[in-house]
Design goal:
Layout: H1 11-14, E1 20-30, E2 33-42, E3 46-51, H2 56-62, E4 68-73, E5 77-87, E6 90-95, H3 99-112
Antiparallel strand pairs: 1-2, 1-4, 2-3, 3-6, 4-5, 5-6
């Protein structure tokens, strides 16, 4: 019997969309609870966020995978999506919008956004 060779891919190799590192301020609207956060990185498919100063016990009850959210990035606008993963004070947001449309919007916004923002 021949066994297939398996290769473990890193998270970066599994990603479908190229990510750009950022340090943007944002607000995650989780139900009726707005949470200040930082966008750690972003792609046309989603974003990695970090929440600071949040009670992790209380957050764990509402910060659940597949929960619908809106990520409002200062100077860029609103991105509807869902929570894809969580780890303590970090999480991944998968955008609901078509990635090609998000990519066009991000390119336009990045071109008009000050470099230090």
């Amino acid at each position: 019997m021949v066994q297939a060779a398996t290769k473990t891919l890193s998270a970066a190799d599994r990603r479908q969309y190229r990510r750009v590192e950022t340090a943007w301020s944002a607000v995650l609207q989780l139900g009726n609870q707005p949470l200040r956060c930082a966008v750690v990185n972003i792609s046309s498919g989603g974003a990695k966020i970090a929440l600071d100063g949040v009670d992790h016990g209380a957050l764990a009850k509402t910060f659940q995978i597949n929960t619908a959210v809106v990520l409002t990035i200062n100077g860029l606008g609103d991105f509807a999506g869902r929570i894809a993963w969580t780890d303590k004070n970090e999480g991944g947001i998968q955008f609901a919008e078509d990635p090609a449309k998000v990519a066009q919007y991000l390119e336009f916004a990045a071109a008009s956004r000050p470099p230090s923002a």
